[in-house]
Amino acid sequence: MALPLTVPLGRNETTTSFTSRLAAANGLNANQFCRDWGFAFSEVIKGNQAAIAKIAKLGGVDKHCLQQQAFIRDNRLYRHRGQILNRDTIRIYDVCFCPACLCDDIRAESSLDAELAVYARAAWMIQSVATCHIHHMPLARTFSRPGRGQHDDFALNIRKSITRLDKLAVSSPKRQPNGLEIYVLDRLEGVAGQELLDSLPLFAAIKVCEVIGSVALYGIRVKAKTLSESKMLPAFARGFEIVNDGPEGIGRFLSKLLATSGERDRKDGPGAVFGRIYHWLMDHKLDPAYAPIRRVIGTYVVESFPVGIKTKLFDDVTVRQPRHSIRTLSLETGRHPKKLRKVLRAAGIIGDTQMASSDHNVTFDAQAATTVIAAMERRLYLPAARAYLNAPRSQADLLIKHGFIKAKDPIAGTYDQFSIDDLDAFLGQLMIDARPVDHASAAMADIPGAARRAHCSAVDVLQMILERRLVWVGRLRHIHGYQSVLVNVDEVKAAVRGPDHGGLTHAQVREALRTNHRVLLALIANGLVIEFRAHNPVTRRVQSLVHPLELARFQKTYVSLHVLADERKQHHLALRKELDAAGVKPVFDPKTVHARFYRRCDCAG
């Protein structure tokens, strides 16, 4: 049920902003408000769906609309409206806003206090968006830096800036959003852009524009960390202009760098010509997010430089050769020579006699070595395998423990490596009949959630899915891997429910006897009410129970003073005097059972 004091959900408002305003409407900051309702504000910040659903219910808004604007934390990545961002592209500590937008909010919600009417737009959380596309003015920052743990409490942080909004809106200079800002906003709305940029995760597209643009404006030795925001914004714009023209535009830019480098010995490689662009790609040569841009620039380097047939660039562009040495294979793969020696020796490609030779002199068949290294590349250590499956640590450990996924035989002393092909096969089996859905209804849950609600193990749910014992299995379109799989909770509950024990719980017996827990335990302890132990059909936990016949026997034979008084419509004290006067004594010692019980036959008169 919604709270009496709520605020309306703004268009494209972040979940943290709505939580902050809802808290402020109820006289609290966001941390205090969430704690009062049994969860932490940090769960809302991380995009926890359960926490956001609670906020939506308290605020009386649609939970799907609210969840859509969440920045869902996934390790060091953030998922927002189907796009992937990282810490470098998110404003973690700065609180930015458009003064004119906030003035519009105040006018639109004139019945609310100003600090409750204004709200944060999701786009303001993205570092590369520094201009309001509606009012064409730079985003401003709050006057005071947020305190520890308060960066996402928008209503709290904007409070000191409220009185200056009109002045800021009037005094802010006018400027048009640059191409990258427009591209980011369009991409969040699902509008297709340039093919190369669209092939990259959003954080990678932004980073590529930053690197190329900073080199274009400030030279090949530029250090991005030293650039102020006033210098970084033009770099974003220039980089987008270059990359938005696709591989041809990047090629033209690289040709200009090559032409301006002058005559020099090319043996020192493309790093000397392309500077930060080349070294940055080398630093990220194993990151799949940048694979498309590595292929574009790597292909240009191979075609433009006198690169020999023994070279591999960025792990994407390869020139093949019949034989390799440790040295050339190291250059091709980027792997350390010592690591390659161990792997090739374990695979039998090189022998013990070659181990003492230098890296240049240890030669072997290139195709055989490439096959072995490719197999090694198709393996992931456990943390990477968990991320690949999109499975929490506890669930990944469970999958390994019960043999759903298995580590491959170790290569040269490595352990806990998992084949990507095996992981793909497991996910494929898990989702072979899964029906895609946009949102999970209340009747649906992911595997660990269904296990909790059905009081069983996630292993039980997995086996039901893999053995096709469930009629309905689904998967969320906007989530990948293990955590996208959904099942019908009622179906799982029915499958794991045990036989009914036929007994009554202590609570049911207390209600029937109209007594308290202390009295019932005393009756049981003294053998006056006989209990038995059985498994709960739902939770499968052993519990203490009383058979209905045993309860009926006790009720037929004995009656408490209070129950007898109710039956006779007398006050219990008056009835007690009457029984004492008639010489009717309690059948059990009241000090032992903590209540007065009489034989019904003694009270018949």
Describe this structure in words.
- The chain is α+β, with helices and mostly antiparallel strands and 605 residues long.
- Helix content is 47%, strand content 11%.
- The chain has 32 helices and 22 strands.
- The protein has a four-stranded mixed β-sheet with strand order 14-16-17-15. The protein has a three-stranded antiparallel β-sheet with strand order 1-2-3. A three-stranded antiparallel β-sheet has the order 18-20-19.
- α12 (202-218) packs across α13 and α24 (447-454) crosses α25.
- The longest helix is centred in the middle third of the chain and has 17 residues, at 202-218.
- It is flat, with a radius of gyration of 35 Å.
- It starts with 14 loop residues before the first helix and ends in a 6-residue tail after the last strand.
Q: pLDDT under 50 segments (min length 5)?
A: 263-268, 306-310
The strand line-up of the biggest sheet is 14-16-17-15
Number of helices: 32
Return the average pLDDT rounded to an integer: 84
Q: So what's the overall shape? A: flat
**How far is the N terminus from the C terminus?**
54 Å
Radius of gyration: 35 Å
Structural class per helix/strand content?
alpha+beta
Question: How many distinct beta strands?
Answer: 22
Share of residues in strands: 5-15%
Helix content percent band: 40-55%
